[in-house]
Design brief:
By secondary structure, this protein is mainly β. The protein is built from five helices and 28 strands. The protein has one domain (111-569): Beta Barrel (Maltoporin, Chain A), CATH 2.40.170. It is globular, with a radius of gyration of 25 Å. It starts with a helix and ends with a strand.
Length: 570
């Protein structure tokens, strides 16, 4: 009840404040969504299973109202006030009212822009300082699966590769007439962990960037980020993890050719002091990333390559925290074998389960499953990697076709648990072909194909031979104006042996359990979408997914799900 009262009071006060001053701009926008799913679990795994759940009906109605108050250029405020009602409840039972977001922003004087409250950080930083890496390769994913992923990302505050945290940030820029064209400064501070008022201190993530544009040919940057504890008298430990990097970009833009060389170089410094036994764990390491990109404008072709070395003990939590937590229990049919075994995470769960996503920065690298990405499970900042990338693709201005192909050849810098080092080879790419642009149709018509193949090997007594392949297919056809036929498919195969890397609270490797897999997963989705506008739609689709894994529990099961989604954005 207190949430309902607070909700009503907040909206009332904003409305009164807006009408009391004619100079104040007050408006609303938001999102409404209704989702209903019917789920069925089948397969040979359930043949002698009489206790595990195999059917379900679920869903919810969501209404996110965002009041926006603009007093002047110096002050503006917004909040997102969600009302969420689970499917099947009556007369408001189970409905929740809460603040999804609260933010105040504005400009101080004519130079400094600021925000505090719930903020996004990372858009001005780099892949080695603040970055939210994608959870799996999905560049050429079908439209029907993109729509499903959009729901997950909205519910988990994902905007591109930024992190959403509570804190404050500010930015400013200065223009010059000689030698330097422009200098930009961005700073931020957030709290990632709250004190318990006893032995655990507050933990803050602070950082920023100074960017210098010398001319159209040269840009420079200095980046810094530090995840550190605030000292208190009763603290049990004191943690600090800082990263500092510099980056440079050289650009030559001519009539037919655009050439660009960029690089980033830096180091991390990890330190953890255990107060109770006066012990310290401390280490440093480096990162180097140099790339070349050439665009031939007449053919709209792009050639790119890079060389990357990330030290075995390079530690950058705000760039290495995985978007998805594989140790989290799955939500849909989470028990098998007469409720005795936790159902393992699948490709379908990664696409549909809102509860698996991580919303905070972790000081320790998460566990990961090799079949979903073994080369760079923590993005480009994945430690203990060195190698090259070479690729060819279309320029982003191409409308008829969007295509890319790249190869990554990497190896470990040091062996993990043994002297021998892993070697990684990855092929990634795909194509989206827009027939509507080719034949000048007013209706949408496109086909997409994507692939990611990875091979991991290691010689010696603890040899490794692990292969995986992820495929994406999709079709979008606008059959009637604003009505789309959608089809999408995913398949994942993985086979071989690996050794998992288990870490302690200091990010140091402590164990290497054997991991054997013989897996095949598929997802097929078909449906229709009615578009009321570019962002509002009704979608109905049917999904079937199979999971066949023979090495561990000999699991062989399938999902069948009818998914109904009405989304209105205003």
């Amino acid at each position: 009840m207190k949430y309902k009262v607070g909700y009503i009071i907040f909206v009332f006060l904003l409305s009164v404040g807006a009408t009391a001053n004619a100079q104040v701009d007050f408006n609303f926008n938001g999102l409404g969504r209704a989702i209903v799913t019917t789920n069925k679990l089948g397969g040979t795994t359930l043949a002698n299973d009489s206790l595990s759940s195999d059917k379900g009906l679920s869903g919810y109605a969501l209404f996110d109202l965002q009041p926006n108050l603009v007093i002047n250029k110096a002050v503006r405020a917004n909040a997102i006030l969600p009302l969420r009602n689970p499917f099947g409840s009556f007369f408001g039972s189970g409905t929740t009212f809460a603040f999804r977001q609260f933010q105040i922003a504005g400009r101080i004087g004519k130079k400094i822009d600021y925000e505090f409250g719930d903020i996004y950080i990372g858009s001005d930083m780099t892949k080695y300082t603040v970055y939210n890496p994608n959870e799996i390769y999905n560049t050429f994913e079908s439209d029907i699966h993109k729509n499903r992923r959009n729901v997950l990302e909205y519910e988990n505050f994902v905007q591109g590769n930024q992190w959403r945290l509570q804190g404050a940030k500010a930015s400013t820029a200065f223009d010059f007439n000689k030698i330097i064209e422009r200098v930009g400064v961005n700073v931020f501070g957030t709290r990632t962990n709250a004190t318990n008022e006893r032995g655990i201190p507050d933990r803050l993530l602070v950082g920023g960037r100074v960017g210098i544009k010398q001319s159209e040919y040269l840009s420079l940057g200095l980046n810094y980020v530090n995840l550190a504890d605030v000292k208190i008298k009763t603290e049990e430990y004191e943690h600090s993890n800082s990263v500092i990097t510099g980056d440079v970009k050289l650009t030559l833009d001519r009539e037919k050719i655009l050439a660009q060389i960029d690089g980033e170089f830096g180091m991390s410094n990890f330190k953890n002091v255990q107060i109770f036994d006066d012990s310290t764990v401390q280490y440093k390491d480096n990162v180097t990333d140099v790339g070349l990109k050439v665009i031939y404008k007449p053919l709209k072709l792009k050639l790119f390559s890079s060389y990357r070395v990330v030290g075995a003990q390079f530690s950058s939590p705000s760039a290495q925290t995985a978007r998805l937590n594989v140790d989290q229990s799955v939500w849909l049919f989470n028990k098998l074998d007469n409720n005795n075994v936790n159902r393992n995470l699948t490709l379908y769960d990664r696409l549909t389960d809102e509860h698996l996503y991580n919303r905070s920065i972790s000081a320790v690298l998460y566990n990961y499953l090799p079949q979903y990405g073994n080369l760079s499970p923590f993005g480009d900042a994945t430690p203990n990697r060195a190698g090259i990338t070479v690729g060819l693709g279309t320029d982003t201005s191409t409308k008829i076709i969007n295509a890319e192909a790249r190869i990554d050849m990497f190896n470990e810098l040091i062996g993990e648990g043994v002297v021998e080092k892993r070697k990684f080879t990855s092929l990634r790419g795909g194509v989206v072909f827009n027939f509507s642009e080719l034949i000048k149709l007013k209706r949408r018509m496109s086909v997409n194909v994507g692939v990611r193949q990875e091979n991991t090997t290691r010689a010696g007594l603890a040899s490794i031979d692990f292969k995986s392949m992820l495929m994406d297919y999709g079709v979008t056809i606008e059959t009637f104006k604003g009505v789309d036929f959608l089809f999408g498919a995913k398949s994942l195969t993985a086979k071989g042996n690996e050794y998992l890397s288990m870490r302690d609270n200091f990010n140091l490797l402590v164990d290497f359990p054997v991991y054997e897999l013989d897996l095949k997963e598929t997802i097929y989705s078909i449906g229709a979408r009615v578009r009321f506008s570019e962002r509002s739609y009704f979608m109905l689709n049917y999904n079937t997914s199979t999971y066949n894994e023979t090495k561990n529990y000999n699991f062989n099961y399938n999902f069948n799900q009818l998914f109904c989604n009405y989304t209105l954005i205003f």
